[in-house]
Each structure stands twice: as structure tokens, then as C-alpha cells.
């Protein structure tokens, strides 16, 4: 439990103990009314510490009329008309409800931390022949670090010596450790399981995978859901309204009704204020969304804010990238055709230039080449999203990419009819040949598409920069409703705009992708989902939800959690409003006491917390 929360409970416990002692003393002895007032006033000041502090903070933010204001006015009014015990008890019960809510939030945040916090505690930097333990944040790009068995990788790096098995389950969900050696990239948050390796730092700690993921988690609650914002807007007008109603109840009867007692109607007005206190309503919504975020965290799904859960629950159109999202993104070279070069020259040139690309196809070309790599032979590398990559290789201009790349430089190339990806190679504006590379569907792609279509009646769309043949073949196999191929990043964005314009107000569009060229559509969609924590930085930044495990069924899990969370939010709001209406009516006509009004509000708060916690427990 956080230190601040412990202090809160200590103050509350002291208030309860003092209150119990004061009530006992008042019952056993005949205290003067003035002495009794000062005793209970002192206890009241202890009991209401959190409300006074909360009200002061809101005043500093120029937010005067809130639940703390209502409770303070109501209980001060009760003290003023002689209902000392009830006034202090009302404040204590209110604080108990608030403290229970704080405990619930604290536990939920701990649940999130338990499943997501994979930050390394330290790093071992090599300084000459010595190994020095340092803070991961002090590492610089180019530093050499040592990672021993059992230690977490502190920052993203490339192994320079040694071989080991790396456990990446916390990042990717892959249960089988991955064997890595010299030249392989390793990611912060992974755990070294066997051998000692040395690695060169490639990213600062703040830019590494683990820091990006934790930042998403820690900022999640800063983004408010539409429902949560609605409740806050509602209470902005609701609080002044009930305050005005309480004033009328307090003033009108004594003035216009013969024999009406001021003390009676002031007390009744104070009961109305307590009955109207919106604490249960205000707290029920964020607690439910926090529960949904925690439930998602248990499944390896990082949700950046409750608003994205709400929008995901309304989603009816799911737009997918193809390569690395619907397909494995693990390619292999199927065919090599050389026009003005030999096949070995074509592979050598392509492998050297593509080594600078982060596209999955590049690795397949490196594997097919199989020779030694000399970085000094390649300069002036430039990636052109939607086209390919260009560079200088041994003094010659090389362009490698799709048919659009060839058209961009005015070179005629063979039109290859295949469902696989064709890579064309241009050498000094001459046609060097082509390489055919194949990919395969992810194992759970069919199940995921079928579930989204049948269970959630989703419209399934694919946007890809791949050829018409390759794209349509995947779309047909997955029974997708629409497939758009040979798209540039700006074309994908334009298509996304069209989909969003066709939506009804209550519907939402979800986009799922993993690459740099997916970032614009991920950012534009109502909800952007990035596949895997090891996806492109731009995609993770643009996305609203990040799947730690690169598995398509997690999308179904996310939708299920979102719908369950929104259902619980609706239940909490409806229950709070109905109970609030009933209690207000009873309070206005004098059928309930201040005790009963407070018990009802605290009860609403506690039941809302219990209901919200069910979302987390269901997804354990």
C-alpha cells in the first residue's frame, strides 16, 4: 500500500476511535451542549481531513462545487443545528467510502504493474577490463554492456560477442527462449537465460522498448473515456442545482408554512445535500475503466486510456495491414531472376542494401545471400515508404523495391503474375532482375477473422502496399469483406478517411498494424492497435492499444474486455442514478435520516467498486 494511503487510513482510524470515545462519553455523562460541540468539532476536523484537502485542491483549480463541497456544507450544517453525532458520523462514513475506493485503485494499479512492469533494475557497463554496475538511464549509445544469466536486458542493443537463449515472453508472449548471438538485436525487458553476452547499446534507456511500454501504462489513466467526461460534465451542473434545491428546502417552508421550525428544515436540507452527493457516481466510472485496463494488462494488452476501451466496444469495422499483421512476416526467397547480373551478384547487392531496412523481407534476402557482409560497400541509404530502398553500392546507384519504384525511375520491368511479393533491382537505372519472396498467414488469423465477423458482426478490411495478386489471395483465404492493394501510406490514409466518413455516429473504426507505414492510419483511426511491443516505434507511438504478444487472438480478447468494461460502467451509472433519485425524494420529504443518506451513498460506492473488480477477476 502506498505511503499516502497508509497515512489516510491512520487518520481515519484515529477519527473513528475518537468518535467512538466521544459518543460513549456523551452517553455516560451529562456534558454541557457547548462542551459537547467543541469535542465533536475537534473530532470532525480530524475525520474530514481528506475532504478539506480535496476541497482546497479543487479551489486552487477553480472547481468549487464538488462532492467535497456538498459533504462539508451538509455536515457543518448538521453541527450548526445540534446534530453533532450524525454530522461527524456522516463525514466518517464518507471518508471510509473514499478510502475503500483508494484501496481498490491502488490494488488495480499494482495488478497492472505486476503484469507489465519489466524495467531492469541495473546495467553492467564494460569500462576497459572492468565491469561497473550502473543505472540503465546512464548508458549511452555505443557503450558496451555485459548481460549475465538471469539478468534483464537494460536497453535495446546488438550482441557483439557470445551466444545465449533470450526469454522474450514479457515482450512478445513467446514461451520458447530465442537463441541469439553476435549481430542479433536484443530488446530491453528480455531475460538472459543461459550464457554471458556482451552487447553494444543502440538506444538510450528512455527510447528503449521497455521504457516505451511502461510510459504507455503510466499515462493510461490520463486519457478520460467519453462516459467519464460525461459524468464530470453532468456533475458540473448537477451540484449547483442540488445546492440551490437544498437552499429552497431550508428557507421556503419556515418562511411560508406556519409553525415550521428553522432547525428542522435546515437539518432536512443538509440531508438532501448528503443524499445528493455524487461521490458514488463520480467514482463508479473511473474505477470500472481502471478495472478494464487492469484486465487487459493481465492479457498482455496495454491500453493507453479508458476512452479507447469505450470506443473499441463500439467498433464495427476492423482495418488490417497484411505483412507482419495477418501474415507471419517471416519471408523466404522463392525465385531469383537475373537480367543484367548473375544470380549471385543480384543476391549480394540486394542483401547488402536491404541490410539497412527494418522490413521483414530484408532478413529473408540476407538469409538467401548467406555470404559475408561488408558495411563499407554501402553508403547513402534512403528508405522510401511505399516504394523500397535506395543506396550507393560500390559507387553505383542501386534501387530495390516494387514495380512503382521501377516506374519512378522510368525503368521497364517484367510483370510477374504471382501471389507472392516481387522485388525489383535497378542498377544505375538499368533493370538488374527480380527476386520473388513468399510469406504465410499467421496460425490464428482465420480464427480471429471468423470470430470478429460472427461474434461481433465486424466488417473486415485489408489495406496493403503489396501487389494485387498477393493481397487478394490473403483476403480471399480470410474471407475479408474488402481488400485494397498496392497502396502508398498516403493512399491508406485516404482510404481510412473514406471508411470513417461512412460510419454512423455510434460506430467506430479500428486499425491494426505493425510497420512505419501503418503509423498514419493507426493515428487516424478511432482506435489504433499496434501488433507486438517489438513493432516499429512509429506504430507504437501512433497506436492507442499495444499488444505485447504478437498474436491476433489478443484483438478478440481486447474487444471482449472493452465490451464487458462498458457494460459494467453502464450498470454502475444506472444504479448510482436510480439510488440517488430515490434517496433524494425520501430526503426531501423527511423519510430518511442523515445516517441513512450517507450509508446509501457509501453503499453505492462500494457496490460499484465490487462490480468493477469483477472485470479484473474474470480475466485472471
Please tag this protein with its features:
alpha+beta, P-typ_ATPase_IB, Cd(2+)-exporting ATPase, 6-stranded antiparallel sheet, 620 residues, 7-stranded mixed sheet, elongated, 21 helices, Calcium-transporting ATPase, cytoplasmic transduction domain A, transmembrane helix, 4 domains, Rossmann fold
3D architecture notes:
- This protein is α+β, with helices and mostly antiparallel strands.
- The protein folds into four domains: 3-114 and 220-291 and 563-618, no CATH class; 123-206, Calcium-transporting ATPase, cytoplasmic transduction domain A; 301-328 and 441-548, 3-Layer(aba) Sandwich (Rossmann fold), CATH 3.40.50; 332-438, Calcium-transporting ATPase, cytoplasmic domain N, CATH 3.40.1110.
- The chain contains 21 helices and 22 strands.
- Helix 4 (67-80) runs antiparallel to helix 9 (262-276), helix 8 (226-256) runs antiparallel to helix 9 (262-276) and helix 11 packs across helix 20 (553-588).
- The longest helix is centred in the last third of the chain and has 36 residues, at 553-588.
- The chain is elongated and about 110 Å long.
- It starts with a helix and ends with a helix.
Brief sketch in words of this structure:
By secondary structure, the chain is an alpha+beta fold. The chain is elongated, with a radius of gyration of 32 Å. The mean pLDDT is 79.
Topology of helices and strands:
Blueprint: H1 3-28, H2 33-47, H3 49-60, H4 67-80, H5 84-116, E1 123-127, E2 130-134, E3 144-147, E4 157-161, E5 164-167, H6 169-172, E6 178-180, E7 185-186, E8 191-192, E9 197-201, H7 209-218, H8 226-256, H9 262-276, H10 279-298, E10 301-303, H11 306-313, E11 315-320, E12 332-338, H12 343-354, H13 360-369, E13 378-384, E14 388-393, E15 396-401, H14 403-408, E16 421-427, E17 430-438, H15 445-456, E18 459-463, H16 468-477, E19 482-484, H17 489-501, E20 508-513, H18 519-524, E21 527-531, H19 537-542, E22 545-547, H20 553-588, H21 594-618
Parallel strand pairs: 11-18, 11-20, 18-19, 20-21, 21-22
Antiparallel strand pairs: 1-2, 3-9, 4-7, 4-9, 5-6, 5-8, 10-22, 12-17, 13-14, 14-15, 15-16, 16-17
Helix pairs in contact: 1-2, 1-5, 2-5, 3-4, 4-5, 4-9, 5-10, 5-21, 8-9, 8-10, 9-20, 9-21, 10-20, 10-21, 11-20, 12-13, 20-21
